[in-house]
Amino acid sequence: MQAEQLLKLVETELDERKAHQIAILDVRGKTSITDFMVVATATSTRHAKSLCDYVVEKVKENGLQPLGVEGELGSDWVLVDLGDVVLHVMTGQAREFYQLEKLWSVAGEKDKQ
After folding, report:
1. pLDDT the model gives residue 64
2. What Pfam families does this protein map onto (predicted)?
3. Could you tell me the CATH number of the domain that includes residue 28?
4. What is the pLDDT of residues 1-57, one digit of tens each?
């Protein structure tokens, strides 16, 4: 699966599962660890974990295995490493505090409300 296809799969699953403020950061040329970072806001720590669980399930259905998942139930930041795409799901408070979009500020960023 190409990076763009994986990105679309992640974005679609997050949107269907009611993630908020989905931001896609194109970090190609900025880092060698991934091509895209997806940052989304969850309504609670449980919602954050659930969103990531659904994304992992959908990725596995498409024949891919996540490289890793960090963050447990009760954590305000859950990360899913899918290789070409790294997903960060945070509570609103964590997202405001860490400001990943500002950290990675790159041209071509796409926000979805």
Report:
1. 94
2. RsfS
3. 3.30.460.10
4. 799 999 999 999 999 999 999 999 999 888 899 999 999 999 999 999 999 999 999
User: Into how many domains does the chain fold?
Assistant: 1
Tokens 């699966």, residue located = 1
- Domain containing residue 37: 3-106
**Looking up tokens 């060698």, which residue turns up?**
32
DSSP string spanning 66-112?
A: -SEEE--TT-SEEEEE-SSEEEEEEEHHHHHHH-HHHHT--TT-EEE
Tell me how crowded residue 105 is: count the other CB atoms within 10 A of its CB.
Answer: 11
Residue 111 lies in a domain: no
Answer whether residue 112 is part of any domain.
no
Q: What is the DSSP letter of 1?
A: -
pLDDT in tens, 88-107: 999 999 999 999 888 887 44
